[in-house]
Amino acid sequence: MGVVNVTPDSFSDGGRFLDPAAAIAQAHSLIEEGADLVDIGAESSRPGAAAVVGADEELRRLLPVLQGLRGVPVPVSVDTIKPEVMRAALAEGASMINDIYALRAPGALAAVAAAGAAVCLMHMQGTPGTMQQHPSYGDVVAEVKAFLSERVGAARAAGIAPERIVIDPGFGFGKTLEHNLELLRHLREFDALGLPLLAGWSRKSSLGKLTGKPAGDRLAASIAAALIAAQNGARILRVHDVAATRDALSVLAAVEETR
Ligand code: HH2
Question: Which of 14, 22, 64, 82 could form a disulfide with 10 if both were Cys (CB 3.0 to 4.6 A apart)?
Answer without folding.
Answer: 14
